[in-house]
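TASK: fixed-backbone design
INPUT:
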């Protein structure tokens, strides 16, 4: 089917079926299809320390066909776009996207990395924020990742 339609599916390192990147990789290898590839996403990895991320990226290697980044962003007093700390993974540091992009370059990845805002967007009072906020986040995220990619 894939050859006829040019379809490639990407398995993501996402719970609940997949616990972490190694489960994703093992499942892709077990299926053993040229049409099943990897979507390794840094923000949903179980750890962000450099050796763990490096092992994941190098192991997945040429299977990598797509990736996402997430979070929320703000502009600091100097005008630079920064990641906001959001309490999604308590006690875990912010993802080091610069390191991740460096590793993706190392494996020769030339695909896309897309922004996902896949959590409720609320203010400190837990009131839902509107589409204007979402649009602002998309623009800030684009600038943030653009600065990393173009560095």
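OUTPUT:
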């Amino acid at each position: 089917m894939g050859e006829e339609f040019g379809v490639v599916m990407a398995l993501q390192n996402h719970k609940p079926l997949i616990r972490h990147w190694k489960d994703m990789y093992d499942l892709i290898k077990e299926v053993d299809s040229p049409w099943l590839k990897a979507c390794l996403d840094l923000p949903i990895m179980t750890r962000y320390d450099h050796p763990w991320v490096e092992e994941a990226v190098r192991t997945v290697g040429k299977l990598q066909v797509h990736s996402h980044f997430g979070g929320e962003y703000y502009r600091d007093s100097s005008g630079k776009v920064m990641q906001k700390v959001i309490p999604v993974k308590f006690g875990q540091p912010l993802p080091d996207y610069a390191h991740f992009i460096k590793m993706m370059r190392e494996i020769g990845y030339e695909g896309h990395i897309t922004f996902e805002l896949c959590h409720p967007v609320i203010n400190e009072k837990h009131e839902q924020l509107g589409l204007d906020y979402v649009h602002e986040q998309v623009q800030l995220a684009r600038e943030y990742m653009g600065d990393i990619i173009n560095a």
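COMMENT: Residues 2-149 form a domain with the TIM Barrel fold (CATH 3.20.20.150).
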